[in-house]
Specification:
Elements: H1 3-52, H2 55-75, H3 78-93, E1 96-99, E2 111-117, E3 124-130, E4 132-135, E5 138-141, E6 143-148
Parallel strand pairs: 2-6
Antiparallel strand pairs: 1-4, 3-6, 4-5
């Protein structure tokens, strides 16, 4: 073999190795990106699980809160009102929010029409029969309402 041929063969081998290195580097970068995306997705799923793990417990506590509020409407006791306020504060810290519906247009995504009455406006909430709530932006319990029709 001549010197020029050997140099040409060496150059081809070098180019093949450079191409292989580039291909392996690209594969490594894709694998790393996939792994990072997997870690992010896992962290998000874990965060969602933790956020909504208390959903059942909070639903049960809401019925207790409703009963306390009904008792307060009858008793008008300042001590009971303090307990209710503290209860609401704790639920608010868990990002529970009451859905305000009275006087608003009926929204079937967040409201459940229990009664319909004749009224001046169409599909407007006349009265809230049972409060509804969202937990961290997700509907937890729909508002039960009386609707004008």
């Amino acid at each position: 073999m001549k010197k020029g041929q050997k140099a040409k063969i060496k150059e081809e081998e070098i180019q093949a190795q450079i191409a292989q290195i580039e291909e392996l580097t690209n594969c490594w970068k894709r694998a790393l990106a996939d792994y990072q995306n997997l870690e992010k997705r896992f962290a998000k799923e874990k965060e969602d699980f933790i956020a909504f793990a208390n959903e059942t417990l909070i639903l049960k506590l809401l019925s207790v809160l409703d009963n306390l509020e009904k008792a307060q409407d009858y008793l008008k006791d300042p001590g009971l009102q303090m307990a209710i306020d503290e209860f609401r504060k704790i639920l608010a810290e868990e990002e529970l929010e009451e859905i305000k519906a009275e006087g608003k247009d009926f929204d079937p995504a967040e409201m459940e029409a229990i009664e319909v009455q004749k009224g001046e406006s169409k599909a407007e909430v006349a009265r809230v029969l049972e409060k509804g709530y969202r937990l961290k932006g997700k509907l937890l319990k729909p508002v039960k309402v009386m609707v004008n029709k």
